[in-house]
From TrEMBL:
Organism of provenance: Pseudomonas typographi
Membrane disposition: Multi-pass membrane protein
Name of the featured protein: AI-2E family transporter
Signal peptide: none
Record keywords: Cell membrane, Membrane, Transmembrane, Transmembrane helix, Transport
Amino acid sequence: MINTDRLLVQVLLLLLLVACVWVMLPFASALLWGAILAYASWPLMRGLTRLLRGHATLAAAVLTLGWALLVLLPLIWLGFNLVDHVRDATALIRDVQVDGLPAAPAWLGQVPLFGDRLVTWWNTLDQQGAAMLQSLKPHMGQLANWLLARSAQLGGGVLELTLSLVFVFFFYRDGPRVEAFVLSLLQRLIGARADYYLQLVAGTVQRVVNGVIGTAAAQAALALIGFLIAGVPGALVLGIFTFLLSLVPMGPPLAWIPATLWLFWKGSWGMGIFLAIWGTFVVSGVDNVLKPYLISRGGDLPLVIVLLGVFGGLLAFGFIGLFIGPTLLAVAYSLLTDWARGQGVKAP
């Protein structure tokens, strides 16, 4: 016979859980980022807590402030540099409208096979520049709307980053209690294997963080070396930009390809060819070697499982899927392996 009182309590608990998820859903991404950042840097938190003689709250505040300075100051600096470049681009467009394009560079006519044709195209473009700008004016509104939408997305990303830095403080301060709560919940659900699966999730996230951040740092350092050798102005800004672009697939070429084209524009063919080769085989090539090594190091999961999780998670969940995807596949793979061995997941 159905116990109506117990059924009512279960329904109410389910509704309460749904309501809680609904309330927390807008902050889910920021919470995940905060948790990932706190876990990845937990050795720093542990060492700082010991240095401050066990004052966990003070250590959490100091470390969170350090992250805020490390993340926000480069963004502010990069923003000011972008404003300067936008101002220069605006001045260039204004000069082109008034005076037309400058004379074709000497090296343009020396391009094999196509030199004369390129010079002719340059002169034609110069003569028709004003008419071309007039024809583009109706599309400027669409471009402005597109830039406004991208600016709104960027603002949302900055807000999410700020919330993540707020949440990371609480993860630092209450990390042991959160871990104990999650472990007790898993023990209630799946029994003795709870600690194993908790360590599996933690290890997978740690390896992915090491792979993504470590590869991005290596690509940024190599790109900075290439920019300095080639004599590209603003090399440090471009290096920071490369680090940010390295966090997404096929991002670094968006930093070194424009720099290569600028070198060609200035007639520095040798340095342009060097930067193109350096960017293709060194900056972009290190991603194919270093990231798989860092992700697979120290784990017993097949590398293909982790890589499928990284790219599949990126397509399914966006950038946060870099960490969600491999974690889900790792847990599913371990569950299936346990089931195939006859161990299963048994509740207490």
